[in-house]
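Figure 6 in text form: structure in, sequence out.
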């Protein structure tokens, strides 16, 4: 992902009001390893059930505000973005208002995502060797591409004209 500054991140949000955009608590942008992430995701320290995601869509940043449901899954679930079966973290249900007129009508979509948006780290861990001759690096690259595709599909769905 390309490096972004605070102004560009704030301007990227497609499903927030101007007031919400101004009050976003941003992460420490200087600490982010931009070359090791496929999307920027963080939890809002002031609003514990709110998360923020910014992904590049057609070369431009697009941000979404996500809200975690208050209930937690009863069973261990799989993240729909990183699809990691050996998750070291929790997965929760997030929903997001659709952008534009659909969102103003109350339309929303949801998905199961790693609670603290650990997907970027999860897909970069080397998978276990499945069999003799297994190409670990190719499997890792495939997981990274899968993450990118899953995040892009979700964001495109949220910003699609409905």
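Output sequence:
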């Amino acid at each position: 992902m390309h490096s972004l500054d605070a102004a560009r991140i704030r301007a990227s949000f497609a499903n927030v009001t101007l007031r919400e955009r101004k009050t976003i608590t941003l992460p420490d942008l200087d600490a982010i390893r931009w070359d090791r992430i496929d999307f920027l995701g963080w939890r809002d320290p002031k609003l514990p059930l709110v998360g923020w995601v910014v992904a590049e869509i057609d070369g431009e940043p697009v941000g979404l505000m996500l809200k975690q449901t208050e209930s937690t899954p009863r069973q261990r679930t799989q993240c729909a973005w990183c699809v990691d079966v050996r998750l070291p973290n929790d997965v929760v249900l997030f929903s997001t208002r659709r952008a534009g007129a659909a969102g103003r009508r109350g339309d929303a979509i949801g998905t199961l995502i790693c609670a603290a948006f650990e997907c970027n780290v999860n897909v970069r861990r080397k998978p276990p060797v499945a069999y003799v001759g297994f190409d670990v690096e190719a499997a890792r690259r495939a997981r990274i591409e899968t993450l990118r595709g899953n995040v892009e599909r979700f964001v495109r769905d949220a910003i699609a004209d409905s």
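Caption detail: The chain has five helices and five strands.
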